[in-house]
């Protein structure tokens, strides 16, 4: 028997008491939500419920709130309603009838930098399903599918092409706020059959330390880092033979200016504006 804040449930996936929010928390479009005893509508692989009152996507940030914005304690219930947080990060607010309980009211610490980055990765993959955003890649012939590459980077930290070229993703707090992402070439010698081949790929470094400049605005940080991930993936494509390249331009030392919509701007601003225009719709 396990406790999830407001209720107990067994490992067969059923709560011992009904949802304290009553039928008001049921979703008319989801028949499984009408079962007041089922844990996460019978789908524990894809959903989780840390409070016993609201199912949230697995691995996502999920917080239950009272009306006054304080985190819910062990008692009370109330009807649940969806709140802000952006496309990929769900924040659930507790409605009328909620109570503070034995744990009392504690401030919400907010999502961690790694949770924000994970939400940004999911948002970037959502954007890449759009043809305009996807069209930033493969500018020089058929190449890697960017949605598949981003999914592989988010899931495994790397993508390997059929020719052995690798695109890898590294993240961490680099103790500075002057950059969000940086992409550098990498070189490997993959073995194919009995022969060694020379392969060039790219390493993407994402600096979670720069999230601090958003002052706790998780939604703005998520959106900005989703754009940064797509921009850095564009640089990685340009460094990786056979990828098809991208419309992202070199924006390093002595990079020339570029025009977008008749406006001349630095290469860095051009890349940011291009990704925002094509992907963040």
Classify the secondary structure makeup into a structural class.
alpha+beta
Number of domains: 2
Quaternary structure: single chain
- Which regions contain 5 or more consecutive residues with pLDDT less than 50? 1-9, 63-105
Tell me roughly what share of residues is in helical segments.
10-25%
- End-to-end separation in angstroms reads 45 Å
How many strand units? 15
Query: Largest sheet, order of strands side by side?
Result: 8-9-13-10
| String of helices and strands | EEEEEEEHHHEEEEEEHEEH
Counting DSSP H or I runs of 4 or more residues, the number of helices is 5
Major sheet description: 4 strands, mixed
Task: Calculate Rg over CA atoms.
Answer: 23 Å
Describe this structure in words.
- The protein has 281 residues and is α+β, with helices and mostly antiparallel strands.
- The protein folds into two domains: 1-110, no CATH class; 113-279.
- 23% of the residues lie in helices and 20% in strands.
- The chain is built from five helices and 15 strands.
- The chain has helices at residues 113-128, 131-134, 146-156, 218-239, 267-279; strands at 2-4, 7-9, 47-48, 56-57, 64-65, 80-82, 92-94, 158-160, 166-172, 181-188, 191-192, 195-196, 199-207, 258-260, 263-265.
- The protein has a four-stranded mixed beta sheet. It has a three-stranded mixed beta sheet with strand order 5-7-6, with no helix packed on it. A two-stranded antiparallel ribbon has the order 1-2.
- Strand 1 and strand 2 form a beta hairpin.
- Helix 1 crosses helix 4 (218-239) and helix 4 crosses helix 5 (267-279).
- The protein is globular, with a radius of gyration of 23 Å.
- The model is unreliable at 1-9 and 63-105 (pLDDT under 50).
